[in-house]
Design brief:
The complex is a heterodimer of chains A (294) and B (301). Chain A is mostly helical. Chain A is built from 14 helices and no strands. Chain A has 2 domains: 79 residues; 203 residues, MetI-like fold. In chain A, helix 4 runs parallel beside helix 7 and helix 12 runs antiparallel to helix 13. The N terminus of chain B is likely disordered. The chains are: A mainly alpha (294), B mainly alpha (301). Chains A and B meet through helix 1, helix 4, helix 5, helix 6 and helix 7 of A and helix 2, helix 4, helix 5, helix 6 and helix 7 of B.
Chain lengths: 294, 301
């Protein structure tokens, strides 16, 4: 009797996990399969749940392929759809600029805070409260300021607006990573005649290197995902980022561009998929701005 | 501090080291926060229309008085609060449930864990796009309902169901956030507590109530604080899935400010709403931070 109830419990356990997996993975499956379907299958009724008739033509279309698509030379949608390539470039450049500068300034600030014990909980709370500011509140004054400076529709405008997210994030996380370094090591370096800059660059940074990489990646992903500010500060393909490009698919009528839209969505997940295995260890820390350590 | 006096006072850099480390980052942040905040307040107190005005004209508290009787604003505020609280509550339950399920040693547990946290890392725009496909009238969700013998639901065309759709998309993306924080919290609970409970013959529920839950409270407060922060500024998913419709039933504050400011061009009015949103959010978060003593969780204090 006891064995049987344990067996039932075990089965129930696995069934619940399986249903959670279906719930969380089905939408991702759906996006990927939609991006690979032929146009006819995308909007077919009844719904095509699974098919082996797959192609990469939606991706070719997004990258401005001019040859035949789905076996037809003249694809009507082609003329409406700008190539995704410049948007990807913009996203990468803005992401690298904002997370790179954010990491540099954040590391200096974090070292200063840890080494000289400046600020206390008030500074911590202030940095944390910056995480709370809604992007839309930032977007309005940033827009007017950058318009006056003539910087609208440049990488610099979006990247410096994203600094507002990446500096506090990097600082708070690196405070945690730097505090993990035993104080003896730093003291030893200082006693051996290292300057603060020397101790920082030759002792602290190398020891915290894995953390620095994780901070850079998470800050990059945050910038890559951000829509509202990027949308407000840009107007053309010169600086518009990937999420801004994606919004153009929300406006189209049902079905017209769903294949390419799904393909764009899959492309948008690529940076996350590449880095997910590395950052998993740091994710709990990163998402809570260092408040919880795993 | 006396330990450090041994350090040769060599370069000029070292004498000002404190300032050189602190000032660049803090300076940039202050510039990015202070000036825009000042500008936002100035705009909020003025009448500024992007389409035909070159300079803001000071009108005092006019915008704020107008907001008091703006039914769209109150609607958006109500929608934001309702949708955010329902979504966060569901995410809490789902996240805790999954964490409890996966806390035990399971075959493939690590892979399942890394699969379950994928949704949270997908760009919200892509999540919105994806759910637009799924909630479509002839999409997979309605197809499934039909196969089960239930009638189709007009997910995005009906005011109530549109709210449900947005909440569902948010829950899908963010319950994994709660999940990993709870899982980290669960794994930090020492095994001997469970062992002693077992010796005492405590039931599963009592073990959870008197051991697991009290140990989880710190992670729960952190997870809730961050989710509440983000849920109140929800924008991307709503923008993609419903654009606030039908008939403003899913209009949220961020979207309302975005629309009034950048679509209709009434930037002065939008700034006033933004100021109110900022004050409201600050108040809510301030209460949470104070209640949970989040600032004290830092070890360098």
């Amino acid at each position: 009797m006891k064995v049987k109830s344990k067996y039932v419990k075990h089965c129930l356990h696995y069934m619940l996990i399986c249903s959670a997996l279906v719930f969380y993975l089905f939408p991702i499956y759906w996006l990927i399969i939609t991006s690979l379907k032929f146009p006819g299958d995308v909007t077919a009724s009844p719904v095509v749940w699974f098919t082996t008739k797959l192609t990469l033509d939606n991706y070719r279309l997004l990258f401005g392929h001019t040859g035949a698509l789905w076996g037809a030379k003249q694809y009507v949608g082609r003329s409406f759809l700008p190539s995704i390539a410049p948007y990807i470039t913009n996203s990468i450049m803005i992401g690298v600029l904002s997370s790179g500068f954010g990491l540099l300034l954040g590391a200096l600030l974090a070292y200063g805070i840890v080494r000289f014990r400046i600020g206390g909980s008030r500074l911590y709370n202030w940095l944390l409260s910056l995480r709370m500011i809604p992007p839309v509140v930032v977007a309005i004054p940033m827009f007017t300021v950058f318009r006056t400076l003539g910087l609208i529709d440049t990488w610099w405008a979006v990247a410096s607006a994203h600094l507002l997210m990446s500096i506090p994030f990097s600082t708070l996380l690196l405070i945690g990573f730097f505090s993990d370094i035993p104080g003896d090591i730093m003291e030893a370096a200082l006693l051996d005649g290292c300057t603060n800059l020397g101790a920082f660059s030759r002792v602290v940074l190398p020891l915290a290197a894995p953390g620095l990489v994780a901070v850079f990646i998470i800050a990059f992903l945050t910038s890559w995902n951000e829509l509202l500010i990027a949308n407000v500060l840009t107007t053309t393909a010169k600086a518009q980022t990937f999420p801004v490009y994606t919004t153009s698919f929300a406006q189209v009528e049902r079905g017209t561009a769903w294949g390419p839209a799904a393909a764009g969505g899959v492309i948008g997940m690529v940076p996350m998929l590449i880095s997910s295995f590395y950052i998993q260890r740091y994710l709990v820390r990163g998402l809570t701005m260092g408040a919880v350590k795993e | 501090m006396s330990t450090y006096r041994v350090v040769p006072a060599g370069s000029v850099f070292d004498r000002f080291a404190k300032h050189i480390f602190i000032l660049p980052g803090l300076g940039v942040l202050v510039a990015l926060v202070i000036y825009p905040t000042y500008y936002l307040i100035r705009l909020a107190l003025s009448n500024f229309d992007l389409t035909f005005m070159t300079k803001p004209v000071f009108i005092g508290l006019g915008n704020f008085i107008q907001i008091l009787s703006d039914t769209y604003f109150w609607g958006a505020l109500g929608n934001t609060l309702v949708m955010a609280s329902i979504a966060v509550a569901l995410e809490f339950v789902f996240g805790l449930g999954m964490a409890l399920l996966l806390n035990e040693d399971l075959r493939g547990g690590r892979i399942i864990k890394s699969l379950l946290i994928v949704p949270m890392m997908i760009p919200p725009v892509v999540v919105g796009l994806n759910f637009k496909l799924i909630f479509d009238q002839f999409g997979p969700l309605n197809d499934l309902l039909q196969r089960l013998g239930v009638s189709c639901v007009d997910w995005l065309g009906n005011p109530l169901m549109a709210k449900v759709s947005v909440i569902l998309a948010d829950v899908w993306q963010w319950s994994s956030f709660m999940f990993i924080i709870f899982l980290a919290g669960l794994q930090a609970i020492p095994q001997y507590l469970y062992d002693s409970a077992k010796v005492d013959g405590a039931s599963g529920w009592r073990t959870f109530r008197f051991i697991t839950w009290p140990m989880l409270v710190p992670s729960a407060t952190v997870a809730l604080t961050f989710r509440v922060m983000d849920a109140l500024k929800i924008f991307d998913v709503v923008y993609m899935v419903t654009s606030g419709g039908p008939s403003f039933s899913t209009e949220v504050l961020s979207l309302y400010i975005y629309r009034t400011g950048f679509r209709f061009g009434t930037l002065g009015y939008a700034s006033a709403v933004a100021v109110i949103m900022l004050i409201l959010l600050t108040a809510i978060i301030e209460v949470i931070i104070k209640e949970t003593r989040l600032g004290k969780r830092l070890e360098w204090e």
